[in-house]
């Protein structure tokens, strides 16, 4: 049951396959038939000359004329003409039709050529001969005895119907007359100028065309016959003498056959010319030479036969199928487009190859950069580790009491030879502000009158009276100077930026005896000549002394080459004096009359904190009552305006911090074009 169902199910497939196979075989057979048929026609000759001799008519018989044409019953292609001197002249043609041969016999020899029209070849059939020899009778015939034209068209329709399964044909007819070297369209009548006049023009492919020639579609022989009647009627109307017309004009019937192969889509367009006088050179030609058997016409007969013999000697080259010009144009366009596409493809391939090469080169570069990045990261990690270790060592050393003030920086040799590790801002060490200072002893100063904006600062300052613990203050101090993050540091290098380093002496005065030579060692750290660094000292209970000369500060500008570096300053007391000594390696010390000072310079990464640290620093002066007031005067470096003693009230957070912190190192805030805040630091040398 299942097998039966499967068989029924698969049966259409099998039939479809067989159908395709048979169709392919059929097409192949048709092509082979055409090839062999055309070969036979070519072997017979593309110009075939038939000789037809009409019978003696009643008038000729009555006048006693005899036949001068002798036929060979064994050879249907020869005839002999009896000449006046009793000689015979032999003529050979493709076929010789005698008086006994009817229209059917004549067309039997013509029909193979007609078939070539449906195969896509041009065919021309025409008749030539003396007047009254039967040209019209052969070509047109009579209703009772149809001629070549009618039979040819009838054959075309028959074959086209026979090939309807594989071929589709469209037939149309045109009819024209050549008279006095003028061409007239016999199927179209012009009411004003008679029949339509045409011209013969040579097409690009060498064929002769008649542009504008009317083509009437025909689907049967009857329709063809109807068109032929119209043409014959127009031909008669255009001439006043029908006998003259018959002798001098040439009538041509053109049948256009458009064929389309339904299997492979091949299209053809061919013409069948049925001419009773002249034919066309690139086509299969059948010429009927019409002769009269009468002895009275022997001279004309010989002329016609000689001409026909010469025509028969004309040889055509191999003929070709006539493709549809529109199809040919379409194929040419497709070929041109194909060539353009091939060029475009070649261009794109070249472009692709170029891009691939560039991509490979960049890929190689990317790999190289990645390797380099990995090496740098590894180096960075090592440097971080080394720096951390060194910081730990420095921190441990700073924790121990020192007998001298020292200004130390971390491994200057390493910093100057290698770039500092650059990492994300989050991983940078935090700003070291003023928090690493020892707590200041209480001094008899009153800061409660200061007006601050910060609540915390108010709590720290208001109502506090501090006294100075000399022992505590004389301990070695460390002062931090905060730098700016990389972005802020760029501004830090702008002209007008000032950095101050202040030291605070707990007793009554602050001394700074740093020599220019000492600061010159720092110069090499600051590449920007516009940088100004000032070191200021102030004493909370009496006055501020600054012994650093301007030239010294200008030298300090060149001290900080790397914005991300930190420099530590430390102060140290030796006995009753402060010493400050700075060495190029890792210690900066400077001596004062009261001791040495060691501090630390650090560059912070938070601009907010820096803005506070870089704020103008007030100069305080102790009053006899123990109150700390700003020192009057104007900083020669900062351009600070004079401040009225006793009237100054700190507002800036940094100043507030100075009240809270008794020992401050702070770079001054950069001068701004918009807000040119004046420094409150006193002149360095005025109080020295
Ligand atoms: N093979 C033939 N058998 C019988 N009658 C013929 C044959 N050929 C011609 N005739 C007769 O001969 C006469 C003249 O024929 P036809 O008019 O066809 O000659 P033609 O060559 O066309 O003359 P023209 O050049 O003047 O037109 C016609 O009456 C025709 O019937």
From TrEMBL:
It holds the Pfam family Kinesin. Belongs to the TRAFAC class myosin-kinesin ATPase superfamily. Kinesin family. It comes from Coptis chinensis. Residues 46-279, 281-314 form the Kinesin motor domain. The keyword Transport does not apply. ATP binds at residues 129-136. This is Kinesin motor domain-containing protein. The keyword Nucleotide-binding applies. The lineage of its organism: Eukaryota, Viridiplantae, Streptophyta, Embryophyta, Tracheophyta. Residues 416-459, 668-688 are annotated as: Disordered. SUPFAM superfamilies: P-loop containing nucleoside triphosphate hydrolases. Gene3D superfamilies: Kinesin motor domain. One of its GO terms (biological process) is microtubule-based movement. It comes from the Eukaryota. Keywords: ATP-binding, Coiled coil, Motor protein, Nucleotide-binding. One of its GO terms (cellular component) is microtubule cytoskeleton. One of its GO terms (molecular function) is microtubule binding. Residues 331-393 form a coiled coil.
């Amino acid at each position: 049951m299942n097998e039966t169902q499967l068989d029924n199910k698969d049966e259409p497939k099998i039939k479809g396959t067989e159908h395709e196979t048979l169709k392919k075989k059929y097409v192949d057979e048709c092509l082979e038939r055409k090839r062999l048929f055309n070969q036979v026609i070519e072997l017979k000759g593309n110009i075939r000359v038939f000789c037809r001799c009409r019978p003696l008519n009643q008038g000729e018989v009555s006048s006693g004329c005899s036949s001068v044409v002798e036929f060979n019953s064994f050879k249907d292609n020869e005839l002999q003409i009896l000449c006046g001197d009793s000689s015979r002249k032999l003529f050979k043609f493709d076929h010789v039709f005698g008086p006994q041969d009817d229209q059917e016999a004549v067309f039997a020899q013509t029909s193979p050529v007609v078939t070539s029209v449906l195969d896509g070849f041009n065919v021309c059939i025409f008749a030539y001969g003396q007047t009254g020899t039967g040209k019209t009778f052969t070509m047109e015939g009579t209703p009772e005895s149809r001629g070549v034209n009618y039979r040819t068209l009838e054959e075309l329709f028959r074959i086209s119907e026979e090939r309807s399964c594989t071929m589709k044909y469209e037939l149309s007819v045109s009819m024209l007359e050549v008279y006095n070297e003028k061409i007239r369209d016999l199927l179209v009548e012009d009411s004003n100028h008679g029949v339509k006049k045409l011209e013969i023009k040579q097409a690009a492919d060498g064929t002769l065309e008649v542009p504008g020639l009317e083509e009437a579609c025909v689907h049967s022989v009857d329709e063809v016959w109807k068109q032929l009647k119209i043409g014959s009627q127009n031909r008669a109307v255009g001439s006043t003498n029908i006998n003259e017309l018959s002798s001098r004009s040439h009538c041509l019937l053109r049948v256009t056959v458009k064929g389309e192969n339904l299997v492979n889509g091949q299209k053809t367009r061919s013409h069948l010319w049925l001419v009773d006088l002249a034919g066309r050179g690139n086509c299969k030609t059948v010429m009927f030479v019409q002769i009269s058997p009468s002895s009275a016409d022997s001279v004309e007969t010989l002329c016609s036969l000689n001409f026909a013999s010469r025509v028969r000697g004309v040889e055509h080259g191999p003929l070709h199928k006539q493709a549809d010009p529109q199809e040919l144009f379409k194929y040419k366009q497709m070929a041109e487009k194909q060539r353009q596409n091939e060029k475009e493809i070649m261009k794109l391939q070249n472009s692709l190859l170029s891009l691939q090469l560039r991509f490979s080169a960049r890929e190689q570069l990317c790999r190289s950069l990645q390797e380099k990045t990995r090496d740098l990261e590894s180096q960075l990690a090592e440097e971080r580790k080394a720096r951390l270790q060194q910081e730990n060592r420095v921190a441990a050393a700073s924790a121990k009491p020192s007998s001298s003030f020292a200004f130390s920086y971390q491994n200057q040799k390493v910093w100057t030879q290698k770039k500092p590790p650059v990492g994300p801002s989050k991983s940078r060490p935090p700003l070291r502000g003023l928090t690493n200072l020892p707590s200041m002893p209480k001094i008899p100063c009153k800061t409660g009158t200061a007006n601050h904006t910060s609540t915390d600062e108010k709590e720290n300052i208001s109502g506090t009276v501090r006294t100075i613990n000399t022992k505590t203050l004389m301990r070695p101090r460390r002062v931090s100077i905060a730098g700016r993050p990389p972005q802020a540091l760029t501004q830090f290098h702008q002209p007008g930026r000032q950095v101050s380093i202040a030291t605070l002496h707990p007793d009554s005065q602050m001394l700074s005896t740093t020599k220019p030579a000492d600061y010159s060692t720092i110069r090499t750290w600051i590449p920007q000549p516009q940088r100004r660094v000032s070191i200021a000292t102030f004493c909370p209970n009496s006055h501020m002394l600054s012994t650093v000369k301007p030239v010294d500060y200008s030298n300090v500008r060149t001290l900080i080459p790397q914005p991300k570096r930190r420099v530590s300053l430390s102060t140290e007391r030796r006995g009753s004096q402060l010493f400050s000594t700075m060495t190029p390696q890792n210690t900066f010390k400077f001596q004062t009359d009261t001791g040495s000072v060691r501090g630390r310079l650090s560059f912070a990464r938070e601009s907010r904190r820096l803005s506070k640290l870089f704020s103008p620093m007030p100069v305080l002066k102790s009053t006899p009552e123990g109150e700390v007031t700003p020192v009057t005067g104007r900083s020669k470096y900062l351009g600070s305006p004079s401040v009225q003693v006793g009237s100054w009230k700190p507002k800036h957070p940094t100043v507030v911090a100075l009240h809270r912190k008794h020992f401050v190192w702070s770079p001054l805030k950069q001068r701004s074009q918009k807000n040119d805040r004046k420094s409150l630091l006193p002149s360095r040398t005025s109080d020295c």
